[in-house]
Amino acid sequence: MSVFLGACSSDNTSSANENEDYIQPSDKDKNSADLPGCTKNCDSLAVDVQDADSGSNDKNTQPEYTTSTMTDSRDGKTYKTVTIGSQTWMAENLAYKTEYSFEYDDSFFSSFESGLFYDWEDAATGGENNGDICPSGWHLPTKNEWQILINFAGGREAADVLKSENFWETENGVKKGIDKMGFTALPAGYKEGGQNYLQERLSLAAFWSSDGLDGGENYAYACMMASSTDKITMPTERIYSSLNVRCVKD
Q1: Positive/negative CA dihedral, 88, 222, 114, 135
Q2: What is the pLDDT along the chain (250 residues), one digit of tens a residue?
Q3: DSSP strand E in the chain: where?
């Protein structure tokens, strides 16, 4: 498995390109060059994250954001929040327990710090009345809502703006996280379906979007950042993998 989930596959995992139900994105949407470490089947699963438009903040200037907190009435947990431009996001990973959520404690993070891990179906339909997993008044972000955040941060090469200052593995030539907007993306890793442990701990932050892949029912879009690159990508990932969730306010 590559650093970027779903972006490419190892010899013993099948890619979406091998799925007969998969509809390949158009050439305009491909961006395989942005997927670090990908060596095979890289051209079928990525969508381009556009650079910020002229109205977006330059990451070398101080973006405007404000912080607050919110409490999830379902379990009483309180989360930091951050308002960035027109959006208000949770500044911590969701840690609401469900029947299918995955909890993992280690010497790096507590389960609350890293949040819980959810497969896509649980994230998208595991809440009240088969809604998404987020608290009332919040929701699982769409692919377009992730795009707005990325543009505001400075574009697809502004991962350092969203990454936390601590915990990330360091690699030559890759900018250290500066958390300039208070989003604090932690490298909590991910869990593949059927496993009971995490992969890419300290080197990958992976968050679900609410958008499944049209024509590819086993895949959904996610926002990802890795220690090996300055880029933010929006690849598709198998819905059976368990990723973190960040909720955005309605």
Answers
A1: positive
A2: 434 443 333 333 333 333 322 222 333 333 333 333 333 333 333 334 443 332 334 445 555 799 999 999 999 999 999 999 999 999 999 999 999 999 987 767 776 688 999 999 999 999 888 899 999 999 999 999 999 999 999 999 999 999 999 999 989 999 999 999 999 999 999 999 999 999 999 999 999 999 998 776 799 999 999 999 999 999 999 999 999 999 999 9
A3: 46-47, 65-71, 78-84, 87-90, 138-139, 204-213, 216-226, 232-238, 248-249
User: Amino acid identity of 240?
Assistant: Y
Specify whether the CB–CB gap between 1 and 238 falls below 8 A.
no
Query: Which tokens in the block code for residue 212?
Result: 């499944």
DSSP designation for 127: S
User: Which residues 6+ apart lie within 8 Å of 217 measured at CB?
Assistant: 21
Rounded to two decimals, the pTM is: 0.78
Q: Alpha helix (H) ranges present in the chain?
A: 111-114, 120-125, 143-153, 159-162
One-letter identity of residue 88:
T
Query: How far from 205 is each of 26, 35, 114, 244, CA to CA, in Å?
Result: 26, 14, 10, 8
Please give the Cα distance from 3 to 65 (Å, whole number).
30
- Indicate the residue type of 197: Y
Give me the helices (H) in 67-192, please: 111-114, 120-125, 143-153, 159-162
**What are 216's strand-pairing partners?**
213
Which two structure tokens, joined as six digits, stand for 125?
A: 């339909």
Structure tokens at 195: 């496993």
